[in-house]
Amino acid sequence: MYQDLRAEAEDGIGAEIFALTAEIFPICRSITGDGVRETLRHISSHIDVDIHEVPTGTNVFDWTIPREWNVRDAYVCDGSGRKIVDFAASNLHVLNYSIPVRKRVSLRELKQHLYSLPEQPDVIPYRTSYYAENWGFCVPHRLSESLREGFYDVVIDSTLKDGALIYGEHVHKGSSDDEILLTTHICHPSLANDNCSGLALLTHLAKRLKGKNTRYTYRFLFAPGTIGAITWLARNEDRVALIKHGLVISGVGDGGGPTYKRSRRGNAEIDQVMAHVLKHSGHDSTILDFSPYGYDERQYCSPGFNLPVGMFQRGQYGKYPEYHTSADDLDFIRPQHLRDSYTIIRTALEVLEGDRRFQSTLPKCEPQLGKRGLYAAIGNEKDGDSKKMAMLWVLNYADGKHSLLDIAERSDLPFAIIRSAAETLFEYGLLHV
Ligand code: ZN
User: Fold this and answer.
1) Pairing between strand 137-138 and 114-115?
2) pLDDT of 276-330, one tens digit each?
3) What is the tens place of the pLDDT at every residue in 93-149?
4) DSSP characters for 20-51?
5) Residue limits of CATH 3.40.630.10 in the chain
6) Is the C or the N end of the chain the one with fewer CB within 10 Å?
7) Ligand 1 centroid to 370 CA: how many Å?
8) How far is the centre of ligand 1, averaged over its atoms, from the C-alpha of 327 (Å)?
9) How would residue 3 be classed by pLDDT, with cut points 50, 70 and 90?
10) Architecture of the domain whose range is 5-65+164-354
């Protein structure tokens, strides 16, 4: 599988992920509604997706599936009939989940429903009002400040009706029922990094796993933030024990980070694996402890579940100025960052797939490698010297207690080299499981 990984790094995976990101970018999504269905249709053109619709009013733990929101059009016209804010230009202009409205308002009333960022006067902020009935428009502060006294016609042609919450799942069967959960949120409208990038990356990851033999079963979940994760957990409570490792993924196309946030357990295998992979990734990465604020790790790591699920992204959410604004567009993300994020995640999965505990068959003193032709066997390999060191580390620590990842950490060598050395030693009969 390592060979595959190296090949993939060069074969345009970044461009493929970027292309799907750009394809789904224009869709107006929310926690419910047709935008989620349409996005899942695009994903389904690459991988098989089971689409689940959970009706409005269904109780999921302490929450209730809300009414389904859809919007067709929205605008603000000034006194001369000129459209000064138009949903057709950007779906961020509508306060997400706005109730329908069609009326003439004073400037004073209009301003009570305008959302802007004084510190970033040229961008449109992304705002939602899921659980409090409201209507509103998100606009550049410069526009809001330029409005004159007078009357304005506001129209939001939206509907809030009984419908469903929608999420999609794709499962790649491994030789074991033990699962790796990979999940990302599908509820944000036209924001490229947060989170068209996450949706596109996981889609292409699933696509490339197709036909590969894996040890773990992989569950890919495309669900609306918070309520989607809560719904999935409520409907799958009896099977979450199968989840051995998990990652929440979002914002993987910007050049920041990379950032990994540990699971609530703090020392789960996925936490060790991500720390190891990031240390050897060549990036200046940041590792954060768990906190009950952020993405859906909050639900997976709630105390009643406490699953070994961490969160991966590039720049930290909320800390880059483009975050949750119209500046998070397709120019903000780059194929090479998508490729690097993909490689980090893929490498972490390779570690999980390949981590084992071996025992040396000759634990008393070093086995004589020369007479077995082992030095010659690796003499011509590119990383021959590291592999020689790796063999010594593996032979010494293959005591049934240390995993290959433990040995990689102890030796400060990348897991791939330790694993490769272990495979060679196994072939030569110097290790057993
Ligand atoms: Zn977000």
Assistant:
1) parallel
2) 999 999 999 999 999 999 999 999 999 999 999 999 999 999 999 999 999 999 9
3) 999 999 999 999 999 999 999 999 999 999 999 999 999 999 999 999 999 999 999
4) HHHHHTTS---SSSHHHHHHHHHHHTTS--EE
5) 5-65+164-354
6) C
7) 57
8) 13
9) very low
10) 3-Layer(aba) Sandwich (3.40)
H or E stretch at 341: helix 335-354
Q: Is the pLDDT of residue 411 over 60?
A: yes
- Torsion angle, CA of 403/407/409/410, rounded to 10 degrees? 130
277 Cα–ligand 1 center, Å: 25
Dist. CA 131 → ligand 1 center (Å): 17
Cα of 188 vs centre of ligand 1, distance in Å, is: 7
Ligand 1 center from residue 226 Cα (angstroms) = 11
Burial 278-314 (b: 16+ CB within 10 A, else e): bebbebebeeeebeeebbbbbbbbbeeeebbbbbbbb
Q: Where in the chain is the domain with CATH 3.50.30.90?
A: 68-161
Q: 324 C-alpha vs ligand 1 centroid, how far in Å?
A: 6
From CA 351, how far away is CA 358, in angstroms rounded?
15
In CATH, what is the architecture of 357-432?
A: Orthogonal Bundle (1.10)
**How far away, in angstroms, is 385 Cα from ligand 1 center?**
45
Distance 218 CA to ligand 1 centre (A): 24
Determine the residue type at 347.
Answer: T
C-alpha–C-alpha distance, residues 324 and 89, integer Å: 17
Question: 230 C-alpha to center of ligand 1: Å?
Answer: 17
Task: Work out the angle at residue 249's Cα, subtended by the Cα atoms of residues 31 and 127, and round it to the nearest 5 degrees.
Answer: 35
* Whole-number Cα distances in Å, 70 to 91, 100, 128, 353: 12, 10, 13, 42
Per-residue pLDDT, 386: 85
What's the 290 CA to ligand 1 centre distance in angstroms? Answer: 18
How close is the Cα of 196 to the center of ligand 1, in Å? 11
The residue to which tokens 């499981």 are assigned: 433
C-alpha of residue 266 to centroid of ligand 1, in Å: 24
Question: What's the CATH code, domain 68-161?
Answer: 3.50.30.90
Tokens of 410: 């102890």
Residue 376's pLDDT is what? 73
Ligand 1 geometric centre to CA of 194 (Å): 5
Tokens of 256: 């920041």
